[in-house]
Here is the input.
Amino acid sequence: MTVTKLSTRGQVVLPKTVRDGRGWRPGTEFVVEETASGVLLRPQRPFAPTRFEDVRGSLKYEGRPKTIGEMNRGIAKAVKERHARGRY
Here is the structure.
């Protein structure tokens, strides 16, 4: 376990072994969340940005293509379910 402290400017230094192990470089942005047991840091973008053209076809789907209406209804249903669970 490594100990670090809060500076007068509100900064905390993360140990080099943690930064290197996670691949966090200078400029990495984090989402800061308060939890019941402390504070959670998550990188805002854990993956490099990708383009649709780079990943198109990577997931195989068996069956007839969905219509735009079916996709919109599915999205609306998922949004309602998330709201009902208190998410968003």
Observations:
- The helical segments are 16-22, 52-55, 68-84.
- The radius of gyration is 20 Å.
- Residues 11-46 form one domain.
- The mean pLDDT is 88.
